Amino acid sequence: LRHRPAKSLFWEWQYGGLARTGESCIEPLVALVDDTVVGFNGVMAVRLWVDGSYLAGAWSCDFVVAESARRSGIGRRIKHRLLESGRLLLVSGASDDAAWVHSSMDSDLSLDVQSFHRIVKPRRKRDRLLMIYQGIQGLLNSKAPQSRSRFYLEDTMPAPEELDALWARCEAGYLRVVVRDSIYLRWRYAEHPLARYRYLTARAPDGALDAVLVLREHESTAYIVDYVGPATAASLKSGLVAAAVSRLRGAKSWVTFTSDRELCAALRANRFYRTRAAHRFYVMASAEVRVTSADWFIMPGDSDGDMLRAARDHVHCGSAHSGDYGHR
After folding, report:
1. Do 82 and 43 form a contact (C-beta atoms < 8 A)?
2. SS3 per residue for 233-292
3. DSSP state of 51
4. What DSSP character marks residue 229?
5. In angstroms, what CA-CA distances link 72 with 7, 63, 84, 231, 322?
6. For position 288, what pLDDT does the model report?
7. Where are the beta strands (DSSP E) in the chain?
8. Is the CB of residue 267 less than 8 Å from the CB of residue 295?
9. pLDDT of residue 155
10. Number of alpha carbons in the 13 Å side-chain half-sphere of residue 222
């Protein structure tokens, strides 16, 4: 973010706002050589559900080492210092340079995260060819049986008590995941100072909340940002994806990524195609806590990738100006 008022507000929300989630904030690490800044690493603390127990975790964000100081070991020293906090360190969407550091430290790299696109209205000849391909994907990947849930596109997040009841029912079904309770979800989406998210809710015939799909739109592109619901629910996930595409009819294209196999199948059945884009997800653990990168539930809403992109989209739309940065 280059717009100073937006950048200041975003920084305070991203890092300072975490205190409202019940997680203690971790100070960003700054590396100095002769009083010159040569490295930086921001950290977002989160609560994790890992193998049936709660663990303290943190997303590594905004990791950078000055070009003049690269390959000198400073990046590894920053990461080792972060691990001294005792938290499980997670990295999503690592850059090439960051990937080099993590690989040199034997961080565990996941190969489970897959990126997907769907083209609704072609703009180029290549898009028409991809639409044929995604249509074939839809035919080859039959949809799960129809869900009994009813779907509603809403501008406001469901009530905290509904979200907490939903997560309490679903949490144990996940092996490894960021805890998605109401406090975390409201901080992450409803209180984002620059972005506006929408919520596709799935409800049982009696009105009980079955699941939530978090969506975002920018210009003509729609993003599937997050899923909150049962870990195993193929019909429900397929129904949510189909309902999202049906209700956001103005979108010319769709973008998302996930590590969840059922969501991957739901996306392919709804004519999304897997892209070649590699999404790097790393797990770094201390010697006392050995956790690998396998079996994690990962979505774009995890870490800071989508939150930064959403902020940039807001600023680039020209809607950012002094006094226009209140929580929504």
Report:
1. yes
2. CHHHHHHHHHHHHHHCCCCCEEEEEECCHHHHHHHHHCCCEECCCCCCEEEECCCCCCCC
3. T
4. S
5. 30, 15, 20, 43, 42
6. 76
7. 29-33, 36-50, 53-65, 88-92, 108-110, 114-119, 150-154, 176-178, 198-203, 209-218, 221-228, 253-258, 273-274, 281-284
8. no
9. 97
10. 24
Distances (CA, A) of 111 to 92, 104, 257, 287: 12, 18, 12, 23
Collapse the DSSP code of 94 into the 3-class scheme (helix H, G, I; strand E, B; otherwise coil) and give the result: coil
* Predicted confidence (pLDDT) at residue 162 exceeds the cutoff of 80: yes
Q: For strand 221-228 and strand 209-218, is the pairing parallel, antiparallel, or unpaired?
A: antiparallel
Longest dimension (CA), the chain: 66
Q: Residue 18 has what pLDDT?
A: 59
The tokens describing 102, both together, are 């993590």
Residue-level length of the chain: 328
Q: Are 227 and 240 in contact (CB under 8 A)?
A: yes
The SS3 of residue 87 is coil
> Which token pair is 324?
């226009």
| Token pair 């997800």: residue | 281
- The pTM score is 0.89
Spell out a b/e string for 169-196, using b for 16 or more CB atoms within 10 Å of the CB, else e: ebbeebebbbbbbbbbbbbbbeebbbbe
The 10 Å Cβ neighbour count of residue 134 is 21
Angle, helices 125-140/261-269, rounded to nearest 10 degrees: 120
Between CA 48 and CA 224 the distance in angstroms is 22
Question: Are 293 and 281 in contact, with CB atoms under 8 Å apart?
Answer: yes
DSSP 27: P
